Amino acid sequence: MQILSFISFTLLVAIISYYKSRKNDENTSDGYFLGGRSLTGIVIAGSLLLTNLSTEQIVGLNGAAFKEGILVMAWETLAAIAMVITAFFLLPRYLKGGITTVPQFLERRYDKMTRTIASGLFLTGYAVILLPIVLYSGALAINSMFDFPELMGVSKDSALWITVWAIGIIGAIYAIFGGLKAVAVSDTINAIGLLIGGLMIPVFGLLAVGKGNMLTGIHTLVESNPDKFVSVGGPESSIPFGTIFTGMMLVQLFYWGTNQAIIQRALGAKDLREGQKGLLYAAVLKILGPLIVVLPGIIAFHMFGNSLINPDEAYPLLVKSVLPTVLVGFFAAVLFGAILSSFNSALNSSVTLFGLDIYKEYINKEANEKTTVKAGKLFGTILAIISMCIAPLLIHASDGLFAYLQEVNGIYSIPILTIIVVGYSTKFVPAIAAKIGIISGSILYVISQFIIKPYVIGANDYPHFLHIMAILFVLNVMIMLIIGKLYPREIEYTQKYTEQVDIRPWKYALVTGVVICVVVISSFIYFS
Fold first, then answer.
1. What is the pLDDT of residue 60?
2. Which domains are present in the chain?
3. DSSP one-letter string for 54-71
């Protein structure tokens, strides 16, 4: 029954995605990479939610909540403010310029080499970090839920290889052969399932805690674990309170405003109004995110206490303990959709970056749009195979992989954010400043976190990596501004309106954005 419901829901999503995207012209850049610039607010919001939520976040954040409580909600709720900023500051500029990739803007603002460096950093991050970890964590979750090793009569390692390749092949079919429209449609359907399935876990968990009464469960949970409901993190926590005002917001701005795998959904909007709707709808959902990725971890702590050695086991164990057997298959299908979303979204963005920023610019400058798309698809296929080979090997990696990867992402996230912010905020900072900013930002971060921290000062006495990100961001901005003062561009940079989409804003955007920010700030005050 579980397997049947899993297969049925998964096939339903695939059929609807094919039906909705079958008329899309995939032989043009806009058609394949941006869904024909036809995405509506609801589709964008659903795709953003599913691209963001996957097993490494659902399992990882709930594991962190099991250990530290509600303070880890900062990763979710502060994202809403970053999305508001993106909707008002970055998206209008992106759509005005009619760009398909973020590095395209970097070429217009600086030069081709800056664009290539940024694309290379994005592709390296996706290939080495994001794609393999999504496959690995997703395969572990699915194997645990269905107990595939026993079901198939194979070892855990063999089951992991089988599941990784199954997820990878299906995800690659969506991303490579369907384009962004198919990815976005499947994401929207799975987003609905994830909201329903994700909210079922805390509901059934609270019913279990309250012995059949959810209100009693909430009261018991809060009264028995008051230290788990404090949003202000201390110096020894994973998110010290001060980091909220430094590196945390920078990480959120990079992720929601400049990360190609995310912002590509908004770039495919039919107009600015729909793009802003999508970002702000998704921001509202992110405020509710802690119900799915934080509250279950606290419920698991109440139910299992310190009996779990590995906090990341909290969420899977809670699902097994409280979810009725008949719903396990549906929830597994929803989780499978979340896994696919993160994988195929990153893969689709990699195809976009390679096709437009590498192949078209350096390998075959005379290539028409059909040839460029074909080359991108071939690259995506190779990248998918490489990530499927790497992912199972992560079983031998050290503990704390999720937190480690968050830190590693700083190698390229802050430098790229720096040159984009300076690029849009100034008119005379030259290309050489961007090259120095992005390269020095990456090198200084590597020296700081992977040489000075472990071998010179020691991890316990070293500033939090989010503080380091903020320090390096300010330093790189200053370096770029000084270079711009000493060696300014000869011609002032002016962004041209390509008129590819209507850039009139959504009339309710300002009110909605203000309400979102007030709700987020109020939630921190309430739980402080």
1. 80
2. 2-9+27-396+497-526 (1.20.1730.10)
3. -HHHHHHHHHHHHHH-GG
Q: What are the pLDDT digits (tens) for 367-407?
A: 887 788 788 878 888 888 888 988 888 776 544 555 667 78
Closest among 294, 131, 283, 119 to 199, alpha carbons compared: 294
pTM over 0.70: yes
pLDDT above 50 for 134: yes
Query: Does the pLDDT of residue 107 top 50, yes or no?
Result: yes
Q: Is 288 exposed, middle or buried (CB count within 10 Å of its CB: 0-12, 13-18, 19+)?
A: middle
List CB contacts of 343: < 8 A, sequence separation 6 or more.
54, 131, 134, 135, 138, 167, 168, 171, 175
Rounded to an integer, what distance in angstroms lies between the CA atom of residue 360 and that of residue 240?
45
Chain position carrying tokens 């954010």: 417
Q: Are 304 and 317 in contact (CB under 8 A)?
A: yes
Helix axis angle for 401-408 and 410-425, nearest 10°, is 30
| 222, 229 Cβ separation under 8 angstroms | yes
Cα–Cα distance between 330 and 333 in angstroms, integer? 5
Output the CA–CA distances (angstroms, integers) from residue 262 to 18, 185, 258, 291, in the order listed: 22, 15, 8, 22
Mean pLDDT, all residues of the chain: 83
Residue 486 φ/ψ, nearest 5 degrees: -80, -40
As a whole number of angstroms, the distance between CA 207 and CA 302 comes to 13
CB 187 within 8 A of CB 10: no
29, pLDDT greater than 50 = no
Kindly tell me if the per-residue pLDDT of 238 is higher than 80: yes
260-306 pLDDT per residue, tens: 778 877 888 888 999 999 999 999 989 988 998 899 999 999 998 87
Query: What are the residues whose beta carbons fall under 8 Å from the beta carbon of 49, sequence distance 6 or more?
Result: 187, 191, 194, 282, 285, 286
Distances (CA, A) of 455 to 236, 244, 398, 451: 20, 27, 18, 6
E strand intervals along 51-119: none
